Amino acid sequence: MKRILITGTAGFIGFHLAKLLLDEGFVVHGIDAITDYYDVTLKRRRHQMLLQSPGFTATECWLEEADRIGEVARKFAPDVIVHLAAQAGVRYSLENPRAYLDSNIIGTFNIMEAARELGVEHLLMASTSSVYGANEDMPFSETEKADTQLTFYAATKKANEAMAHSYAHLWNLPTTMFRFFTVYGPWGRPDLALFKFVDAMLDGRPIDIYNHGDMYRDFTYVEDLVRGICLLIDAVPVRPESADDIEAGDSLSPVAPYRIVNIGNSEKVRLLDFIEAIEEALGIEAKRNYMDMQTGDVPATWADASLLKNLTGYQPQTDVRDGIDQFVAWFRDYYGK
Ligand SMILES: NC(=O)c1ccc[n+]([C@@H]2O[C@H](COP(=O)([O-])OP(=O)(O)OC[C@H]3O[C@@H](n4cnc5c(N)ncnc54)[C@H](O)[C@@H]3O)[C@@H](O)[C@H]2O)c1
Fold it and tell me: The NAD-dependent epimerase/dehydratase domain covers which part of the protein (predicted)?
């Protein structure tokens, strides 16, 4: 069975991915610094759950520690690396851009170096729908130009895509970059809307609704997302002989074993409908605090996920109401509310 090194396993998506891969029989090593960007208890609990599986081991260290990252990677000798650890969050990047520079640029470089040195079969790394920035042509497709990032977070992820392309080209390192669209579900992040809304509504506090509710997101259920990642592990990009060999709609580079893949639900959901679904799941009416648009935010995201489907045969499919129900059930149980 393949050996997979995953960064960010104490994080929301890394935890779910590690769980799925362990269930599928893979051997997994996790790297995470358990940063204090949000509740570290939640991160530690995720790691504790994973450590119950005999196939899982973990190292607590920073991506920025180049020597340590190299050592851990050499010792584990992975076939595949999935790099998910990052300073995430669109809004926090206005407050503390340096955290993004350190974790996302330096940290990602160290992971790419480890992947190059070990000559892994496949390096897969997280980018974001935020790289589509001010693009207005929807649904967003990977073959479109994406040059108008609106936050430093998005800029670091776009930089990661360019960095990864150069390594794929220079070292023939097969690389897939994922662009994730608003991921939600159990064990979710406290800084994201669903968590904040449910928490506030259960406490009787008002919820902040940006752009007066005129917002749309392609909400992607976390279990669908990690299923997509798991299937993409085997969709190893191969450098094409010539640009003519690239199929229409494929983002494969003409000069490198490198591709970008959207993972989204392919459904544009209105924020106000999302809130109504939460109200129904909780049986509570939200106290609404309508606000202006936040700097750097975009009014809508919507994925064209046909490349994912073409490569893997898989399409995320969880209805947002079902996903919210799953989140609410987890939240009530975990926090005893
Ligand atoms: N959740 C989403 O909606 C979403 C959307 C688009 C892209 N992404 C990307 O997906 C990836 C995973 O996101 P997530 O939602 O699981 O976030 P998360 O914050 O829950 O997980 C990230 C993990 O990385 C760790 N980490 C951060 N900086 C580190 C560093 N310098 N060294 C070592 N560990 C570090 C954190 O401790 C955390 O456990 C990130 O790259 C993020 O940018 C997420």
Answer: 4-235
Q: What is the pTM (predicted TM-score) of this model?
A: 0.98
The answer to whether 93 and 152 are in contact (CB under 8 A) is yes
Q: What is the pLDDT of residues 186-211, one digit of tens each?
A: 999 999 999 999 999 999 999 999 99
Residue 210 appears among annotated catalytic residues: no
Domain ranges of the chain: 3-181+221-265+303-317
Looking at domain 3-181+221-265+303-317, its CATH class is alpha beta
Distance separating alpha carbons of residues 222 and 11, to the nearest angstrom? 12
| Residue 84 CB less than 6 A away from ligand 1 | yes
Q: Which long-range contacts (CB under 8 A, 24 or more apart) does 148-151 make?
A: 150/296, 150/297, 150/298, 151/90, 151/93, 151/94, 151/296
CB 160 within 8 A of CB 109: no
Residue 74's closest CA among 113, 22, 21, 27?
A: 113
Question: Strands, E, within 173-228: which ranges?
Answer: 175-180, 183-184, 207-209, 216-217, 220-221
